[in-house]
Every structure is written in structure tokens, then in C-alpha cells.
Amino acid sequence: CFHSSSLSGEMSPHVETAAIETELLRDYRFGQQQLIEIWGHACAIAITKAFPLTSLGKKQPTVLVVCGPDQNGSIGLVCARHLRIFEYEPTIYYPKRTPHTIQQDFTVQCEKMDIPFLSYLPTEVQLINDAYNLVIDAILGPETDHTDVKEPYAGILVTLKQVKIPIVSLDIPSGWDVDQVTSDGINPDVLISLMAPKRCATSFTGKHYLAGRFLPYDIQKKYDLNLPEYPGIDCVIEL
């Protein structure tokens, strides 16, 4: 796996990716909204590679995108909007909307694309299995404390652990410790790592993509990221 090595010393990959993000925002003058847009777009492209429209079993190319309260949820909103443009039919479940302008902007963008928002998530798992081809887990990112998952997210994880359709997790599977695998979390079929795989991804056995080909070379070098070569002009690579 491609998590960084020599320069990190005792730093965990999460501290590292947080440090990289801070540097991108502060020194490289990227905007928060810009980063989320890059990641969400790249996640949508990874999903089209893992689940092409022609491969979906149901008549309609329906996808359920479950969004959490923090940055991971915003990435999910952007991902849903791009999937809509790629002619999938996303539905969003976004139970706790935050007052942050960025999240509100991303929400309005989805609403203006006529993407439906669910008012509740059915606890009857069969309803989810019947209605959608796959679920996108954009609930809890590396920024969330996995030991203290509050409602409604704890209940959502219980429901999603029972679904039979494929799950795609953005950056880390919800409920996992960023540094090691925990049995409490979701067990996705596909993982899309952002910037660089987190340490917990080393034991992930499903289909694994790395997304977001934009890191300045100096940052790649400084953090010894040792990223793989992306094919051609792709912004996504299967690891």
C-alpha cells in the first residue's frame, strides 16, 4: 500500500493527511471548497469505473449516497452531483445538515440538479436492497472519532452493515479507526482513498482506488508519499 514511510516517523497517516490539507490551504492557497470539489469529482469517476452504468443490475441506475455532518459528507454531496451528470440516479440521505456555507452551497447545487433527498433511512434493509444498485458511504471520514459515534449515525451504520447491495466508502469505511481495522465499522466492497491511503486501508481486501491526482510535487516529496503512477490522464487509479 502507498502510505508514506520514512519522513513520517511516529506520525499517523491521519495526522499526516491533516497536515497536508492544512499546508494545501495555507501555503498553496487551495480553497476548502476547491479541495472538496476535486475529491468528490474523483470519487464519482472511481465509482463509474467500479460500477459502469451498463453493469448495474436494476432497470434504473439508482445510487443511495449517505452523507455525514463533516467534510466526508460534503465530498459525498459533490460525488452525487457528478454521478447525476454521468447519468446515474443518485438519492441523498443527509440527516444532519450543518450551517456551514460550504455544505449549504453543495446542498443547493444538488437540489438544483433535481437530486432527491430522503427524509429518513428505511430500517427495513430489504427496501434499500430493492431500490438501489449500491450505497455510497460518505458518513464518517478520518476527521471523526470512531469510538464516539453518535446518533443518527450509529443507527445508520447498524442498518448499512445489513445491506446486501455493494457499499462504496469514501476515504475510510465509516466506523473504522483511521490507523487500524476495527470490527465495528462498515465492511465495504469498494474503498476510494483520497490523497493517499490511510493505514487502515492496508488490510482492506475489496476493490481499492486512489483518487485525486492534484498534489503538488513538493508535498509528495516532503511527506514521502510514494504515490503510484496514474495511467494516462486519469485522476483515479486502482491499487
Give a description of the structure.
With 239 residues, the chain is an alpha/beta fold. Helix content is 34%, strand content 15%. It contains seven helices and eight strands. The protein has helices at residues 13-26, 32-50, 71-85, 101-112, 125-131, 153-160, 217-222, and strands at 62-67, 89-93, 117-118, 134-138, 167-170, 190-194, 207-211, 236-238. An eight-stranded mixed β-sheet has the order 3-2-1-4-5-6-7-8, sandwiched between helices. Helix 2 (32-50) crosses helix 3 and helix 3 (71-85) packs parallel to helix 4 (101-112). It is globular and about 50 Å long. The termini are close together.
Sheet having the most strands: 8 strands, mixed
Determine the structural class based on helices, strands and strand pairing.
alpha/beta
In terms of DSSP E residues, the strand content is 5-15%
**What is the CA–CA distance across the termini?**
8 Å
How are the strands of the largest sheet arranged?
3-2-1-4-5-6-7-8
Low-confidence stretches: 1-11
Rg for CA atoms: 17 Å
Order of helices and strands: HHEHEHEHEHEEEHE
